[in-house]
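Incident review: delayed structure delivery

Summary: a single-chain prediction request sat in the queue longer than the usual turnaround. Root cause was a stuck worker, restarted by the on-call engineer. No data loss occurred. The affected request and its eventual output are reproduced below so the record is complete for anyone auditing the incident later.

Affected input:
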Amino acid sequence: MKKKLLTFVLAAAMVLSMPTALFAAEAQSEKTADTPTVSEGNEIAPRSTTSATVGASRKSSTSGSVSANASFNTKASKATCTITLQVKSNGSWKTATDLPVYSYIKTEYNTYSIIASRTFTLKSGKVYRAKVVISDTNSNGTYSTTRYTGSF
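Output delivered after worker restart:
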């Protein structure tokens, strides 16, 4: 009797945990992907960016702030962070070219990390997000990582 009860409890636990595993993937409207990294011998090389964090907030109906922070496992001779605002238009994201300033680029040299932040003037009533591309160059090559903020 105990064996049957234990088998039933284990089977129930497995069945009940399946929906959690099925929906565990992060949902995004656009794929957040890193540029594939291949070294000379067509082998996969380790990533240079060890962490990349981005965030955004709406300060008012016409102002929003975006910040990005990335660190590298190898000293970068050149690191660049490009922040580009995107506006939601007809259900898809487009570069917000109708704003006076919609992009910001920060470059640092001989560094293990890069931090960038910028406040943008926005149009009231529109929904925005930021596309952040972090690239770094070191002795092994140039690497690029793309992240998207949540909408604001």
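Verification: The first strand starts at residue 49 and ends at 60.
Action items: add queue-age alerting; document worker restart procedure.
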